[in-house]
Amino acid sequence: MDYLGGLVSSIFSIIFIVFVIGAVGYLLGAISVKGVSLGTAGVLLAALLYGVLASYVPSFHVGEKEIILFDAGLKTKFSLVSSIGTAMFVTSVGFIAGPKFFRSFSRATMSYVYMGIITICLGALVTVLLTLIDSKLEASMAVGLMTGALTSTPGLSAAKEVAGEGADLVTAGYGIAYLFGVLGVVFFVQLLPRILKVDIAAERERFVAASAVSGGKLRGDLKKLEDFGFLPFFLAIAMGCVIGAVKIPGINFSLGNSGGCLIAGLLVGHFGHIGKIDLRIEKSTLNFFRELGLVLFLIGAGVPGGVNFVANIKLAYFIYGALITLIPMIGSYLIGRYVFKLDIFNNLGSITGGMTSTPALGALISTAGTDEVAASYAATYPVALVIVVIAVKVILLVF
User: What is the model's pTM?
Assistant: First the structure.
């Protein structure tokens, strides 16, 4: 038994846990019910389930050996996994969208900027209304629910900073609303086209044709310094960390690694070279980086999310969080369709950006069958990051 305990103890490392969750998650994601599946978001479900299990059984013994499922040390490691995954995912999205993003900015991107503002403002409005309706709902809890419902880690950090003694309530609210905040958007982008009976194939053909913008040609002979695209990718992430660390005076806001890496990916993807050094990356490589980054993000964020969900769940607050997720999505879709006249894919892409939902973009790419939808996400996401930070600070200061 001691030998068995030692063996199990040595196996149960963060590496083992991450890859087991990933394998189980892909099995869950492959299950399809009437054509609807979780896809990569199945990894999130597996991570959440592991977190729920760990919240009830944080450790167990095999012989004299204690096997740790989740503790403060593992929480830190999962946070690192999530951060690396986020950086990889958004940098890949930036590279993919970069060649066309800036060339199309003057024509359509302002609609996406407005969509980002509208989505967050609708979420803030629902949050304020809930605090007015429910006198027992403290502002700190309400803002926590809002940041979880909108899956905004920068918003969570800003809220905790302003909340002071209410920081624990902010974290609790985030944990309660985060589960539906992620899965709700994932299912929304898959189910809405079916509800509206959209012909995906025909819509994709029109969408790709309308999105076809010449990427331009790079002058002269460019030199690749390595074959796999690691150099430009790592360079963009390093640049993104620097960009994300810059704070805007007055509101003490920074884009963080996620926003910074997205901007860096857009810039490097747009220019494609530094002097004679070729910084372009093959599409297949970017797709690999994007998928791997998404999986690492889902595992790193999902496990602590499952732990927090069980520790802080309260039915009324869960419903409040669901409302803060659903109403902005539905409202933004209607405004995008009837006011800005956005097609279904660009509309949903801007909603995933406005909801700052990394896994939902992955689900939308799978549903649409084209990663061109990343452009509207990339245009909306940075705006939403800024607005959600401002919104939570205003709510806490006023209420």
Answer: 0.77
